[in-house]
Amino acid sequence: MLSTVLRLPVGVLLLSLCMGLGTSAATIGVAVTSLAGEALAPNQSLATVPYGLQFLALMASAVPLTMLMGRFGRKSVNVMASLLGVVSALVSALAMAVGSFLLLCLGHMLLGVFLAGLATLRFAAIDRSPSDLREMAVSLALFGGVIAGFLGPTLARSAGMFFPYENYIAPFLMMGVVCGLVVLILIFLPFPNDAETVRQAQAAKREAQAEGRRVGSIVLSKPLYWFAALCGAVGYGVMTLLMVASALEMKNQNFAFEVNTYMIQAHVIAMFAPSLFSGQLVRWLRRDRFIFIGMMFMVSAAVTALFAPALWAFLVALVLLGLGWNFLYVGGAIMVTLLASPAEKLRAQGVNDMIVSSFSAVAALTSGACLVIFGWQGLQIFALIVLVPLIVFGVIVRFGGVPLAQPSGQADT
Question: Model's pTM, two decimal places?
């Protein structure tokens, strides 16, 4: 496996570092957002609204960002999105300083645009990798999130040592510093395939206009594409629903903020650590078995969470939840990559990320309200019900009906 990793371009390793740092910033947000929202919201059921708006902004910006990449290339758009991450942190810190719930919502909407740009880096890693290493490239790009597992919660806990402010201002300022590091790396990192990406996107648009059809109509008509997108969407949605609710429930059970951050830390590590070998697992197990294991992790997480408020139940459930997210998200991303031709890839990637973020947005927006309405036990049962349609859809399309080889005519980029 090490020899395979060493064959990847250095740029893929730097993109993995960017994703790790960017996810660290998001993890800081996860640790404090629901608590900050609870402190500023008119009532507890609105505590997760800023987090939900973050995913709504992610959803709304996913396709426009890929369209901009088709005109200007990945680099300039990713740098712009990362700068918005810095601005989002400053706005959120200001919101806590002046006690404005609306400003907190605005800050997290800007953070959503940053995360939409960050998510496209996994596809940028695929673009600059040989065709036989693309599974490993997307896995390694996501493995950068292990940095987030260790760094994010640690920075959230220790932010007060660097910024002597109370009321969650310090963690938000720390989030801005981390986003700034992503900006610096992206500015100095070459994107060698940007010109080819723009050329392919423009050529596809001209061809579609000449034929009187919409770009991306071919890949978007495939049931397997929608199954791949729903794997990431349902996995991300269920993960967000239970992760955000866990932070609130642990607070309701009088666990200290430090305990909360340690639980989130274990969860984030479980989300990203398997990415070091998940690309190889996809080849060994095939996509159908790999995705099925992810579904079973999700089911096990919801069942284990029923034993809360025991601390071990929170810990085990969050770890299983992270593992399930990884298997579904990685499996879905690899399927989307194999299904789309070079001319369709930006549209396919943008629509995929829009679907994923829409599920996450709904989960984040309703997590606090669902916890109040259904209670902790009812929330787990609801999560189990949500997983059933995905399993049924997977059986209908027989999971891994996509050949491991590239689609006809797909060239390395």
Answer: 0.70
